[in-house]
Write a structure and sequence with these properties.
The protein contains 12 helices and 12 strands. By secondary structure, it is of the alpha/beta class. α3 (89-107) crosses α4.
């Protein structure tokens, strides 16, 4: 089979890399192959993949940028299968495995962050077994919430899938058995976070109605934001609260864990202020989403086929 050489610059501008690619590849596959080779080339800084079905993972990406600004952060959004929180366990497991396989092949990340509670509480064991890359998951911050609550009455705000998951119930039994836990599962709140990032006007009445079961117990003083979308709405939710409430999420803890998996970050490395955002399907509101992504340093976007 005939081959031809392909040259492209990799890393240093004076370092040409010679590759051979099958001539029989269709143009689209050929382009993807060249792109993947360029992406997987030797690099001076670690690459961290932040993966979610929607834009919620941006709240984790923001904490990572604060903690490890020397890392190359890539945000991947499986918007073709959005939202994960309403999927069956079988469908969600299969989808996450397929998407991560495509992303790992494309990016070769040093660390993968599954920035989705719905996915993490279900598929972490299987994807850690399937892939060699270090995988960090996001799980409900029930333990710290139970520890800092003065009244020992805490709220759990999550997607319906996370609220029902056995994993979540185990966390409550292990770390918050001495607390009263009020659980609210909301898929609508995920949509509101997506709306905010696109610059839309939030319906305060709908937001108030979702939060009312958590605000009603007057002794409740701490709420766990057990979906990465929800920290994006923290300011609006706090403004509606009838009293001071502690809002707890896993973003900072995830950033600390990723930092621990990347030795050598204390050396002098250039800062990486910009990120790439990957989507699994064209976004219908791409123009509206662009400004929101830019607020988190995502200045370029691409579509990846799964």
């Amino acid at each position: 089979m005939k081959r031809w050489p392909v040259f492209y610059q990799c890393g240093e501008p004076d370092w040409p890399l010679l590759c051979t690619i099958e001539q029989s590849l269709p143009k689209t596959k050929f382009a993807m192959a060249v792109s993947a080779l360029a992406t997987n080339a030797p690099r001076a800084v670690p690459r961290v993949l932040v993966f979610d079905s929607g834009v919620g993972g941006l709240s984790v990406l923001a904490e990572l940028r604060k903690a490890i600004p020397q890392c190359e952060l890539v945000f991947a959004c499986d918007n073709e299968a959005f939202p994960y929180g309403t999927k069956s366990e079988t469908a969600l497991t299969s989808r996450v495995q397929a998407v991560l396989q495509a992303l790992i092949q494309r990016l070769q990340p040093d660390v993968i962050v599954v920035a989705c509670n719905s996915a993490s509480t279900l598929v972490l064991p299987s994807i850690r077994h399937q892939f060699n890359n270090p995988v960090v998951g996001v799980v409900p911050a029930i333990k710290p919430a139970a520890s800092i609550s003065a009244s020992k009455c805490i709220g759990l705000l999550a997607t319906p899938g996370t609220v029902k998951r056995r994993y979540t119930q185990n966390l409550i039994e292990e770390f918050a058995s001495h607390c009263q836990v009020v659980s609210v599962g909301s898929a609508e709140l995920v949509e509101l976070a997506e709306l905010k990032l696109r610059g839309g006007q939030l319906p305060k009445g709908q937001l108030q109605q979702i939060l009312e079961p958590l605000f009603n117990p007057t002794e409740l003083d701490t709420i766990v934001l057990a979906c990465t979308h929800f920290p994006l709405l923290k300011e609006e939710m706090a403004a509606l609260a009838p009293r001071p409430i502690q809002w707890i999420d896993s973003g900072e803890a995830i950033a600390r864990r990723v930092h621990s998996l990347l030795p050598g970050l204390d050396q002098e490395l250039p800062l990486q202020p910009h990120s790439m955002a990957l989507f699994t399907a064209p976004h219908p509101d791409h123009n509206l989403l662009t400004n929101g992504l830019a607020q988190f340093g995502c200045t370029t976007t691409e579509i990846i086929e799964v």
